[in-house]
Amino acid sequence: MSTEKELFGAVDALLGQVAQDELPAPAERKRLREASGLSQAQIAAALGARREAVGSWEAGRTEPRPPKRAAYARLLEGLAARFPAPAPEAPTAVPVRVVPEAFTGPSPEPVPAPAAAQPPRTAESSGTARPSASSRRPGAKKTARPATPAAVDPRFENGPLAVVDADEDGQVSAYCVGGLVLDVPAKTIPALVDWTLAEARLGQGRLHRNGRDADPILILTAAALEHYGLPAGLSEEERRTGRLADSHKVVKQIGKAGLQLTQRGLGPWARLYRDPEGSRRRCVQLCILPWNALDTREWGKRDDPQLLLTMHPADLARYLGLYAARVMTPRGTTATTGLELMVALRPPTRAEKDPVTGEFKRALNDDALTQLYPVVECEVVDEHPILKGKFARHHLRTPAEMLMEEPYDWCRPLTDEDYANRYLVTIDLNMSFAAAANGLTVGLNGPTHLTNPVFDAGLPGSWLVDLSHVDLSRVDVAGRTVNGELLPSPFTPKGDRPTGPAWYATPTVAYAVELGFDVAPLEAYVRTQSGRYLDSWYKRLRDAYVQTMADMGVTTDLTGSEFLEAMARRKQADPTMALLETAIKATAKGGIGKLRQRSRGQVPYYEEYPALKRETWRPDIRAAVLANQRVGLHRKLMKTAAAADLYPVAIGTDAIVYPSPGPSPLDVLPQTPEGKPVPGGFRLGVSPGMVKHQGTQTVLWAESQFEERGGVFNIANLIKTDQSAGEGE
After folding, report:
1. Nearest 5°: CA angle at 273, between 272 and 276?
2. Nearest-angstrom CA–CA distance, 190 and 259
3. Roughly what angle, to the nearest 10 degrees, separates helices 51-59 and 40-47?
4. Which residues lie closer than 8 Å to 475 by C-beta, 6 or more apart?
5. 3-state class of 418 per DSSP?
6. What is the spatial distance between Cα 193 and Cα 216, in angstroms, rounded to a whole number?
7. Cα 589 from Cα 583, distance rounded (Å)
8. What count of other Cβ atoms lies within 10 Å of the Cβ of residue 268?
9. Phi, psi dihedral angles at 572 (to 5 degrees)
10. What is the mean pLDDT of residues 477-492?
11. How far apart are CA 30 and CA 94, in angstroms?
């Protein structure tokens, strides 16, 4: 028979077991932690666990295991004694949104539902439980979801994308925007795709009522790749082809499951889909992070290429979610996304009801690029099939044979007046290509050939004209003239004065007329149907950029000195927002460049490459934007020179170097007697087209650079106090 001591020992052991097995409800765990002022990271450090694990315990997605369970229970018991729960006023549902400690700053804005009518949300499709967030606790009940805001499309209430990660216990989680974390039950890639289509409620509503919804995107981390049997990196051959070998077991799994891949296969950016259900697409895009899906030159930091790979999934979801909300769901590179944004905002087709039959049919939109048109020899790149047999091998086309509208790459020797200044101050135009697209009329149809035409600034296209007679020293600018020898020519990228007839886009020829000179085109290829195709594209990127800068404390209402101070400290305000700034700028620049995408070696010279099959392969539109950017910059140079006898020494794309008595732009940019910027000149500010400080160097530094190189060269982009200034532009 047991003694009293043995019985007491058995009871104590039983009580200890109960203490290990009983924990407060998940919401109470979070309440106790927040009431005590402790962070998830502090609790995780004390228990020897991961911070994400503590977040999962508080969400009820997972439960702690011995020996951490007993220690966690003891902690909560002690906190409960100090911070008793208040009497509840009414029963409340346990929230399903978990905000990880790493998540800070603004959340992605809710995406409004598209203008087109949406199907009613049935009881079956709008269950109150979090999608696939079933706990692994026996008998656990699904928790109620908070009411969805009216502005959010209920089909995509969990946002446009999710970062899929796996922990050491094999639990897969999908980190969504706003700090929401979903349990992922899928054990294979095909199951992951089907879960996304059926339950995840990911995606983004169309940006135009005639457009289409964006497919959901899953960003796979290295841990997720390992969990799903994918390699951590592609082989040399696979990197060259841009896809995983078809013999890989995961590719075979996809085929056996009835899923289809596009012709690009399973690469860094892969689309997996099933046949549509009526008009509803069933497609998921995979962004495989370790396979360099997000190029660090565009999406990350050049000086820290590992940043994207090491970001916490919640931070990465926040970053890309903000990009999706402000620009659009990423579609690959920032350049590709920039081009896709044009199409999303100006869809080529719409549904039109036939008045006779009453049926809907596809119709073309007049304000969009809707089809492929014949190309013009002077507008295409050297490797284009139309040029086959036209020129001798290795022939370099002249301006009279090729439209050479490019941004500035110009410099000049320093004068004695320049040496009288101590510094060289570089200013940089904000989003100069996007600003040049604003209000620009471009051609929307095919070319019409004209011989000896009268110039018409309202006709977009290419003009063969001699502008060698334009002398900047004869131009009247507000009653004053300028020294044309110290300014670049507005008609060539190198700033040299033209020597004869050359092909120019409409904005360039129009600027010659604006300066007061006669023009007599010899030939032209013009577009008779035109429109401001890029206006909505510019406005969306402008708003995204200005809002992102405001999140870092750089607002549109700052004075010159306040603006410079805010720009200098913005990187420390929020590193994630700094990445977003770079990505938005790269989207603007890359989207314009994509209009004349060159062959990347996919095919031999003079053979058709994939980009040529796009309706948006429009080198004439790219030329018009670049011409408008260059002459717009020159217009400001002329105004500044006339107002203050101030001349640049170098220009690199949109970075302008001025000699200055002091190290700040405030020391060099001219102002009116009232203390305001000179009308028509450069103005400090955050909006596209305004300027910021890129960097400062001394005149002696420039002289040493010239001596080292053995001559004058363009120093504009070497002068960077802020190494990220101009990135992406």
Report:
1. 165
2. 7
3. 110
4. 481, 482, 484, 515, 516, 638
5. helix
6. 10
7. 10
8. 21
9. -80, -15
10. 94
11. 11
Torsion of CA 641, 642, 645, 651, to 10 degrees: 0
Cis peptide, bond prior to residue 67, ω within 30 of zero: yes
Q: What CA–CA distances, in Å, run from 461 to 444, 446, 489, 589, 627?
A: 10, 10, 21, 21, 11
For CA atoms 537, 543, 546, 552, give the dihedral sign.
negative
Contact 109, 123 (CB under 8 A): no
Q: How far apart are CA 626 and CA 637, in angstroms?
A: 17
Indicate left, alpha or beta for 461 from its phi (over 0: left) and psi (-120 to 50: alpha).
left
Q: What three-state secondary structure class fits 155?
A: helix
Output the six-digit token pair for 104: 């800070």
711 conformational bin, left if phi > 0, alpha if psi -120 to 50, beta if neither: left
Q: Summarize pLDDT for 492-550 with one digit per residue, the tens.
A: 999 999 999 999 999 999 999 999 999 999 999 999 999 999 999 999 999 999 999 99
Tokens of 2: 């047991």
Could you tell me the strand order of the sheet in which 260-261 lies? 181-184, 172-175, 161-166, 217-220, 280-288, 269-277, 260-261
**Alpha-carbon distances, residue 203 vs 152, 170, 221, 315, 569 (angstroms):** 11, 26, 19, 19, 35
Burial of 367 (0-12, 13-18, 19+ CB in 10 A): middle
The helices-and-strands tally (H runs, E runs) of the chain is: 21, 20
Question: How much is the pTM?
Answer: 0.80
| SS3 of 45-89 | HHHCCCHHHHHHHHHCCCCCCCCHHHHHHHHHHHHHHHCCCCCCC
Q: Are 376 and 620 in contact (CB under 8 A)?
A: yes
CA–CA distance, 296 with 727 (Å, rounded to integer): 12
Pairwise CA distance, residues 508 & 514, whole Å: 10
Tokens of 204: 């983004």
Sheet hosting strand 501-505, strand order edge to edge: 448-451, 523-526, 461-466, 501-505
- For the record, the structure tokens of 307 come out as 């940043």
Q: Per-residue pLDDT tens for 571-583?
A: 777 888 989 999 9
- Which tokens is 296 given? 């660090």
588 C-beta neighbours (distance < 10 Å), count = 31
- Both ends of the chain: CA-CA distance in Å? 86
Work out whether the CA dihedral 378, 379, 382, 383 comes out positive or negative.
negative
| Segment among 129-143, 275-289, 549-563, 573-587 with least mean pLDDT | 129-143
Give the single-character DSSP code of 199. I
Q: Are the beta carbons of 466 and 500 closer than 8 angstroms?
A: yes
Separation between Cα atoms, residue 34 and residue 44, nearest integer Å: 14
Structure tokens, 488: 């670049």
Residue 660: CB atoms within 10 Å: 22
Residue 431, judged by CB atoms within 10 A of its CB (0-12, 13-18, 19+), counts as buried
Rounded Cα distance between 490 and 492, Å, is 6
Instruction: Report the b/e string of 403-414 with b at 16+ CB within 10 A.
Output: bbbbbbbbbbeb
Neighbours of 688 (CB within 10 A): 22
